[in-house]
Task: inverse folding
């Protein structure tokens, strides 16, 4: 059972790594600049442990407390990984997430920055934080889905940069469902450049999922977040 799952994950990983390398080469980029974050949400900690054996170094989760529980189980199984929290985060859960997340990709408002900073300070940790950018609407419209409106990115980035226990890693987006991902990733790359102009160390661009990693890499993604193409289709959420 576990052997079968291991070979399935190994084959899927090889395909995804091949796609990343091909996309990087097509864009004239060094594939070594890219980090594969395997999003393991809904899949068991046993899969996380297998992925670690197969050379995966970074995993992503989108829900608390599932993420924390799996981190503990995977650590008990001996897996050493960097944990990325990529999902929407309620302010009152930020404290708990800072105990196990190495990076949070979904920072989209000032109150969340404050909550993450106090959690990280209490835990005695320093956490990578990405400003999540909402590219659904126009700049002058309030952001509907998760993410800061492009016009608000700067204030969130500045707040992260001045928080002692957070490190401003860069920006993140989820491409809108009903739009061309190329447009979204091109826009994200402009927002990323604006952030870097103020904060030269904030070089990370977290973009690209199973369906659009090629477009994201073409527009400068440094971290791709891949779930289904590695683990398989998730059962529909109830
Ligand atoms: C689930 C998820 C992913 C991975 O998506 P796939 O389509 O399964 O590759 C990436 N980013 C976020 C924020 C997610 O919630």
Result:
């Amino acid at each position: 059972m576990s052997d079968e799952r291991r070979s399935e994950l190994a084959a899927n990983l090889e395909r995804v790594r091949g796609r990343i390398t091909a996309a990087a080469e097509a864009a004239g980029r060094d594939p070594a600049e890219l980090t594969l974050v395997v999003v393991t949400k809904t899949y068991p900690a046993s899969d996380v442990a297998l992925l670690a054996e197969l050379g995966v170094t970074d995993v992503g989760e989108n829900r608390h407390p599932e993420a924390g529980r799996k981190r503990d189980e995977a650590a008990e199984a001996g897996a050493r990984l960097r944990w990325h929290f990529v999902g929407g985060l309620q302010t009152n859960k930020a404290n708990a997430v800072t105990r196990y997340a190495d990076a949070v990709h979904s920072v989209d408002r000032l109150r969340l920055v404050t909550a993450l900073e106090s959690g990280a300070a209490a835990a005695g940790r320093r956490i990578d934080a990405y400003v999540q950018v909402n590219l659904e609407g126009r700049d002058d419209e309030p952001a509907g889905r998760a993410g800061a409106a492009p016009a608000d990115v700067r204030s969130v980035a500045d707040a992260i940069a001045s928080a002692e226990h957070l490190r401003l890693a860069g920006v993140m987006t989820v491409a809108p469902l009903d739009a061309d991902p190329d447009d979204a990733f091109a826009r994200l790359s402009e927002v990323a450049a604006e952030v870097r102009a103020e904060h030269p160390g904030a070089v990370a661009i977290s973009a690209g999922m199973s369906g659009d990693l090629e477009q994201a890499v073409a527009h400068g993604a440094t971290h791709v977040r891949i779930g289904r193409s590695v683990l398989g289709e998730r059962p529909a959420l109830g």
